[in-house]
Amino acid sequence: MSFAGSIASSANKRKGSPSSGDGDPSACPLLDSRAGKIPRRLIPDLPEDIWRHIHSLMPLRAAARAACLSRAFLCSWRCYPNLIFNEDVLRSEAHGYNPRYFSRTVDHILSNHSSIGLKILKIGLGDISFRKLKSWLHAAITPGIVDITINIWEDYKKYKFPCSLLSEGVRNSIRNLDLAACAFHPTAELGTLRSLTSLCLYCVRIERGELECLLSNSPALEQLNLAHCDKITCLKIPRVLERLTSLIVSFCWRLQVIENQAPNLSSLEISGDIIIGGMSQVKNLVGMSYSKRFSFALAELPSIMPNLETLIIRSGDEVVYTPIMPSTKFLCLKHLDIFVTVSPPYDYVPLVSFLDASPYLRTLSLDFNTGHQEHESVLELSSPWKQMAEHHHRSLKSVKITRFSSAKSLVELTCYILKNAVSLECLTLDTLPYGFGCNGENHERRFSIQKSIMREAPRALVAIRTYIEDKVPTRVKLTIGEPCSQCHAEDN
C-alpha cells in the first residue's frame, strides 16, 4: 500500500485530541524506521486553522510524513491544498520509476481527498492511461482551484483536455492554466475565465480561432506563453487584454504574424522570423532570429518599438555584415545583450553600429559562440588595424564580453570601446562561456567546456595583456575571467 493509502486507512482508527502525537510511523514507508513516536509534550496545542496553515506550507512528501506522525496533520491531510504529482515527488527507493506505483499512489490520495480547499493541482507523469487521468482531473478540478498544470508526456497526439472541466465555479477561481502535450479546443460556449492571469500552452494542438476565442474570454490575463504550438499561423492579441504585460512565443514554426492590440504589453520574447505589429509600448524584448538578425534589429526595431529599454538578441549562425547607419535610433535603450553563433573569420567591428544607434545605452553584454572552430589570432596576424570614426558614447558604463578570444577584430572592437566610452566604469573580459566561471573549486565542471575554448583561453589572455590592458583608463575596473591553474594543468 502507498504512503497516502496508509495514512487514509489509519484515519478511521484514531481518536483523541487534535494535537496528539501518537501516530504510527510504520504506516508510512517514507519515514525513517528509527524516528519512533513523537512525544505529546513536543507538540503545541494550536487551533485547527493554524495547523492547517502550517501543513499547507510543507511539500507533498513532508506533508504525508507529518500526517503519519501527528493526528493534527492527519486531519488537515484530507484537504491538503497543493497536490503535485510528478516523478520526483512520487519516486521511492523501493519502487524507483514505476508508473503502476505512481498511479496507485495518486488514486489513494485523490480517493481520500475532499477536494475542498484544493488550490494547486500539478500532474507531470508518463505512461498513465487516459482513463486514469480523466478520473483524477474530475476528482480534483473543482470550484476554488487556482492553479492547474497538466503534462502527460506520452501520446500527446491522442489526449484531449476536456473543456467541460472548466465549470463556472472553476472559471471564476482559476488563475493559472498550464497545459502541455495535449489537444485543447475551447469554444465560445466555454464562458469567461474571469480570474485567469497566466496561460501557458506547450506543444498543444489548438487552432487559431480557438486560441483567439480563449484570449477574448480571459480579460484578466497578464502573461501568455506559447511554445511549439504548430497549428497557429497568425496570433491576434485582442484589445480586451488590458492587463497583459508579458508575451512569450517560442518555436511556433508556422506562426508568421503577431498582431497586438493589448495596450499595456511591455515584455516580449519571440523566436523565428515573425512579422510583428502594435508593439510600440514594448520595453523589454528577447528575440531569437535565424535570417534577419542584426540588420533587422538596427533598421526596423527603432521604429517598431520606440520605447525599448532592454534588448536581448539571440542569433543563429551569423555571417559577416557591414556596418549599418540606422535612420532612427533607440532613444530609450539602456541595456543590450547579444549572443551570437559565429563562423570564423568573423568581423566584430560592425557591432559598433549598435553603439551608434543607442546614445543612452548603459550596459552592453556580448557572447560569441564559435563552436569547435578557432579564430585567426591577433597574435599571428600582421595586417593593419582598421580605422574607425571616433564617436563618444557618453552613457555606456558597463561592458562584458563572454568567451573573449584573441580574434583581431574583437580586440579592435574592445580598444574602440575603451577609447570612446568616456563614462565607462567597468570592463569584464571572460575567456570562458557564461556560467562556467572557474575559481579553483569547481574545476570538475571543466569537462563540459569545449577543448577549443580551453586552447584559446591562453591566447586570449596574451592578447589582453598585450593590446588592451595598457589602454584601460584608471577610472575603469578591468576584470579578467580565465581557467584556474588546475584546469590549465589538466589541459596540458
Q: Which key features would you list for this structure?
A:
single chain, 492 residues, alpha/beta, 15-stranded parallel sheet, 3-stranded parallel sheet
Would you give an account of this structure?
This protein is an alpha/beta fold and 492 residues long. It has a domain at 292-492. It has 15 helices and 18 strands. The strands form 2 sheets. Strands 1-2-3-4-5-6-8-10-12-13-14-15-16-17-18 form a 15-stranded parallel sheet. Strands 7-9-11 form a 3-stranded parallel sheet. Strand 16, helix 13 (408-420) and strand 17 (426-430) form a beta-alpha-beta unit.
What layout of secondary structure does this protein have?
Elements: H1 3-11, H2 48-56, H3 60-69, H4 71-77, E1 82-86, H5 87-90, H6 99-111, E2 120-124, H7 130-140, E3 147-151, H8 168-173, E4 176-183, E5 198-205, H9 208-216, E6 223-227, E7 234-237, E8 246-250, E9 257-260, E10 267-271, E11 275-277, E12 284-289, H10 293-299, H11 301-304, E13 310-318, E14 335-342, H12 352-357, E15 363-369, E16 398-402, H13 408-420, E17 426-430, H14 451-468, E18 477-481, H15 485-491
Parallel strand pairs: 1-2, 2-3, 3-4, 4-5, 5-6, 6-8, 7-9, 8-10, 9-11, 10-12, 12-13, 13-14, 14-15, 15-16, 16-17, 17-18
Terminal Cα separation, in Å? 56 Å
- What topology, given as strand order, has the largest sheet? 1-2-3-4-5-6-8-10-12-13-14-15-16-17-18
The count of β-strands is: 18
What gross morphology would you assign? elongated
Mean pLDDT score: 81
Q: Level of helix content?
A: 25-40%
List the total number of helices: 15
Quote the beta fraction: 15-25%
Largest pleated sheet? 15 strands, parallel
Rg on CA atoms, Å: 29 Å
Q: Which regions contain 5 or more consecutive residues with pLDDT less than 50?
A: 1-36
Structural class determined from secondary elements: alpha/beta
